[in-house]
Amino acid sequence: MNPAVVVIPTYNERNNLPRLLAHIFSIEPKFDVLVVDDKSPDGTGAVADELARTNPALRVLHRPGKQGLGRAYVAAFKWAVAEGYEYILEMDADHSHSPEALPAFLAAAQDYDLVLGSRYVGGVRVLEWDMTRLLISTFGNWYARAVTGLHYSDLTGGFKCYRRKVLETIDLDRVRSIGYAFQIEMTWWAVQRGFRVGEIPIVFYGRDHGETKFSRAILWEAIWTVWKLRLGLIRNGSPPSLPAPAR
Questions:
Q1: Domain range for 20
Q2: Is omega for the bond preceding 29 within 30 degrees of 0, making it cis?
Q3: d(Cα 14, Cα 142) in Å, to the nearest integer?
Q4: Within-domain flag for 103
Q5: Most buried residue, 9, 128, 197, 230, by most Cβ within 10 Å?
Q6: Strand 204-205 to strand 87-90: parallel, antiparallel, or no bridges (unpaired)?
Q7: 56 CB contacts (<8 Å, ≥6 apart)?
Q8: Burial 61-80 (b: 16+ CB within 10 A, else e)
Q9: pLDDT tens, residue order, the chain (247 aa)
Q10: Cα angle at 20 between 198 and 87, to 5 degrees?
């Protein structure tokens, strides 16, 4: 078994998934992949199953229906920890994240416990988005930083790498967020537990095929979640005793 697994949640991504998987499996070092499908009406799960029949590095986790991105990641993280992976990466299925960046995440994970892929560190690296969507994203990250006090440039991004000990010390069943706020909440708990969190620059590409999952409900969840975290209205158990972070 490889020490690293890439988690890819899917919902109606049958046109994107085969090309994405082929790209990931062409990268060195090699990565295992877990596809988490929420019973996609377009048959994405069946496509993933067919690809997995001839590729032992690909696993598929089927869920009973669409329950939100956060719930899909929680199920995947539990599976990855139980399987013994040391590095658990996450990325989108729509080609907005390039597999070429995966080795850089592993390299950074030698110094950090959680590595965030940032679209905004050292400048804006977003392609094929209209100005409205870019402004919503940049303002949302500024707002999240201002409320939570977290200083990272991209708190809502979905291209990340966890060391397993981070996921082992967060009570995943008590993570409440289901949309983009899930990314903020997970980083918040990692910081609260004293883990080393760092960022690396990535290029973010507009969705290749299919429809965006962004919605007003997801936006409102993010707006309120940061305040709930800051005010202690969301709890995740008592942080374990950890050694002081390396300087």
A1: 4-230
A2: yes
A3: 34
A4: yes
A5: 9
A6: unpaired
A7: none
A8: bebeebebbbbbbbbbbebb
A9: 789 999 999 999 999 999 999 999 999 999 999 999 999 999 999 999 999 999 999 999 999 999 899 999 999 999 999 999 999 999 999 999 999 999 999 999 999 999 999 999 989 999 989 899 899 999 999 999 999 999 999 999 999 999 999 999 999 999 989 988 999 999 999 999 999 999 999 999 976 555 555 567 778 898 999 999 999 999 897 554 443 433 3
A10: 35
Say how far apart CA 8 and CA 119 lie, in whole Å: 19
Measure the CA–CA gap between 204 and 65, rounded to whole angstroms.
Answer: 28
Question: Could you tell me if residue 242 is inside a domain?
Answer: no
Rounded Cα–Cα distance for residues 67 and 73 (Å): 11
- 8 A C-beta contact, residue 236 and residue 168: no
**Distance (Å, rounded) from C-alpha 155 to C-alpha 117?**
9
DSSP three-state, residue 85: coil
| pTM summary value | 0.90
Q: Give me the number of domains the chain comprises.
A: 1
From 120, 151, 148, select the one nearest 135 (Cα to Cα). 120
Q: Comparing C-alpha atoms, which of 63, 61, 18, 55 is closest to residue 39?
A: 63
CATH of the domain at 98: 3.90.550.10
Phi first, then psi, for residue 117 (nearest 5°) are -85, 120
Task: Output the six-digit token pair for 118.
Answer: 């940032």
pLDDT at 243: 39
Torsion of CA 193, 196, 178, 3, to 10 degrees: -110
